[in-house]
Structure formats: C-alpha cells, structure tokens
DNA sequence: CTCCATTTCAAACGACCGTTTGAACTATGC
DNA sequence: GCATAGTTCAAACGGTCGTTTGAAATGGAG
C-alpha cells in the first residue's frame, strides 16, 4: 500500500494543535512547534504567513467537523418538530466531546486544543475562536429560546454561555486535574477519564437540569 | 489625614493582578508590570525573587479574604445543623463573586485575575492556584456529599468541579464577551454586567438545579 | 555626623522570540 | 536535456524576555 506521508503543512497543524493545547498560544514558541514537526522555522511563515495565522488555520481545521455535525443535528431536530431542551443540549455537547474524544489519542489532543483556545487569556485569541464557532450560535440560541418559552432571552443566553464554558473546560481537561497533584478528590478519580461517552452523559444531565429549573425568569 | 502611600511592593502586586488578569501569565512581561507600577525592573526580583514568585504572592493575597470568608460561612453552616445544597453552593459562590466584585474597580480586577489564573493554559500555573484554594476543598466536598446522600462521590466531585469552573469563568468575565465583537447575544447584553449580586443569584440558581437533579447516581 | 541596613537604579547578561532573506533543493512539464 | 514553480534550508535580523550586577540613593539608630 502506498503511504500518503503527511505534508509539512499537515505536520505543522498537528503539532500546533498539541502544543497550543498544552501551553497556550503565548506559552508555545514556533521553534518548539517546528522542531517537533521536523520542519524548518521558516516553514510556518511560508505555509501560513505568521504564528497567528497558523493558529487560525488550526482552529478552523479542528472546528470544521464539530460545526458540521452540530449543523446536521440541528437541521435534523428542527425538521422533526419542536426539539426539547435536552435534545438541543445533546446536539451541542456531544459533537464537542464525542466526535473529538472518540478517536484515540489525537481526538483528545484536538479537544484540549479547542477547549484551551476558546478561553485563552488573550482577548484577541478568544475572538479568533469565537469567529469560528459563531455561525451556528444564533441558531442554537433561537432554538433554545423556543424550547424554553418561560425563560427570558437573557436567561437563555446566560445558560448558553454556561454550557459553552463548561464544555470548553471539560474538553481542555482542566477539570480533570493531574493525578499526583493537590486537586479535587485525589482519593477517587472522577468517572469520566476513561469513557468520554460517560462524561457526555454526565454533562448533559447536569446542564439539562440547570436549563429546565435553574434559569430565572 | 495622612496618606499611607503604597509601597513599591504593593504597587507591584496591584499592577500584577491587573496585567496577569488581562493578558495571562505568559502574555505579560515584567517590564510591562514594572513600568505601569512606576518601579524599576529589578524591583520584582528584589521584593519577590522571580516572576513566578510575584504571581504566587499575588494569588495568595487575592485568595486570602475569599478563603477566610468561605471558611467562616462553612463553620457557621455546619454549626447550625445539616446545610442544604443551596446553602453550601451559596457559601462557595458568593465569596468568590461578591466579596471581590462588590468593591468598585479594583474588585473586578481581582476577580478577573483569580478567574484567569485558575484556568491558565500552563499546568504549572493552575497547580499554583489550586494549592492556594485547596485547604477548604475537601471540607466542601464532604459537606456536599452529606447534603446529597443520593449522589455518588464521583458525581459530587463532578458537580463541584463544574461549580468551580463556572465561577472562575464568570470571575474572569470570559463569559461576558466584548460588546462590539461577534459573540453571544450582542443584540441584548446579559443581565449580569451591572449588578454582581444578580449574577450571583443567577449562578446559584443554575447550580442548585444542576446539583439537585442533574447528578447521576 | 557616622554607620548600616534597606531600597532603588541604570545597565548589561545570555537566551529566546517571531520574522525575513536568499540560496539550495525537489519535482514536474516541456 | 532545460526551464520553472514549489518547497526547504541555514543563517541572520532586530527585539524582547527574565534575571543579575554593582553602585547610588535613602533613612532611621547610635
């Protein structure tokens, strides 16, 4: 069989995903990325133009399948009548956790990358991410509003932001602290580390309860 | 009245809070801090020893009143019998939001600083923060477990981590995106920007519902 | 005033940063 | 074969990074 070897461009994107996800944008140097990708320093500016353009390309590539799947689910739900809050929450959470975690090692890397960038300390980086996930946001907000007519638009937006934030934190694995360090419940490891599906179920249940009964009028 | 002028050490801590909260640890240089604090570059290493030690000192100073208030509330609740989940959640959230937001401009700066550092991209920084908020963590977990006997320890820990994460995100104002940019609900600004008390109420209600009915057995 | 510990200062250290350059290499079409 | 477009390369660019140095300023105690 012929092995379609990864191009330099692809290797740069893969390593960028991993390193940016581990150390953040500011905390990761182009030299660290290019060395790990077995590429020359100048390759970044040749293929992408700048460090930030590399990040933008990596975000776009990582988010594309998630956005596609979310759109597909939303289309499907709305075609079938009035979706419940749980269906909508599931359609948002699961593509973020499963589609990306359910692929062995690389999936976890992509998830951590997305989760970290979404709440990077730099406003510039956060907006860069927001622009990528923006298109479907208003659709979800409108659908949630219809599914929760008793909640005010502000309350729905509040719930949506909480959902978005919690998803990002779980994606980035920031809520599953290091085993050896001083963290939460180091006596018993949380449920979710082995099975991303179980984490998705737990998170959906948590959010459904909060949306159904935790939004102030 | 005599004006006890701020010492260089205090000015450095104040500016560090602000800049680290805005740009993150890696994204903020000591030169930017010392210039804004009208101090010499060498002052950081003289008063603290290193950049990381400056951060550690800032975290400790910022967290001290929050930890004290949380301990006080927990003592009071446990002295009065078996606290409800809502009382426990309130005792955790409110010190984080009010005690720190309800102080004009500087309170918001401190809140953003804490919220950002708690989920900094660098694991090293996150652990530095975790060590500071660790002491009361096990007390809260145990109290929550007693208040929610039907939930498994894993589920309680899961809920606690979600609470901690959501609090940090709201503290850092990462969930109240920039007004002009492409973000959630730029048609109507969320409720919470003007009144931190209202945000606390919304967040507590959200979490109480999630804890009461959203934790899987 | 002298002494001494504390604090501030300008200047420099080596290291690393993102980016650019221009030549060398590679592969494909003619 | 040669020409050509695409890609990779070592090397260097000017800047900024955290940290260190040693001297100058400061200010209370004797």
From TrEMBL, chains A, B:
GO terms for molecular function: DNA-binding transcription factor activity; transcription cis-regulatory region binding. The keyword ATP-binding does not apply. The keyword DNA-binding applies. Keywords: DNA-binding, Transcription, Transcription regulation. Residues 29-48 bind DNA. Residues 6-66 form the HTH tetR-type domain. It comes from the Bacteria. This is TetR family transcriptional regulator. It comes from Kribbella pratensis.
């Amino acid at each position: 069989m012929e092995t379609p070897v990864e191009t330099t461009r692809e290797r740069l994107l893969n390593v960028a995903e991993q390193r940016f996800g581990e150390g953040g944008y500011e905390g990761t140097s182009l030299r660290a990325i290019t060395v790990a990708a077995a590429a020359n320093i100048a390759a970044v500016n040749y293929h992408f133009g700048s460090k930030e353009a590399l990040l933008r390309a990596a975000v776009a590539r990582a988010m594309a399948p998630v956005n596609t799947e979310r759109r597909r689910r939303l289309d499907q739900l709305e075609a079938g009548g009035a979706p419940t809050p749980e269906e909508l929450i599931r359609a948002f959470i699961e593509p973020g956790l499963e589609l990306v975690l359910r692929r062995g090692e690389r999936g976890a890397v992509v998830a951590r990358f997305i989760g970290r960038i979404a709440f990077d300390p730099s406003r510039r980086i956060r907006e860069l991410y927001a622009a990528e996930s923006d298109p479907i946001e208003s659709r979800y907000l409108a659908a949630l509003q219809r599914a929760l007519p008793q909640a005010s638009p502000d309350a729905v937006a509040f719930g949506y932001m909480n959902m978005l934030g919690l998803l990002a934190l779980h994606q980035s694995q920031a809520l599953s602290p290091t085993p050896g360090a001083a963290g939460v419940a180091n006596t018993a490891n949380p449920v979710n580390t082995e099975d991303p599906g179980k984490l998705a179920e737990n998170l959906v249940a948590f959010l459904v309860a909060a949306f159904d009964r935790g939004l102030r009028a």
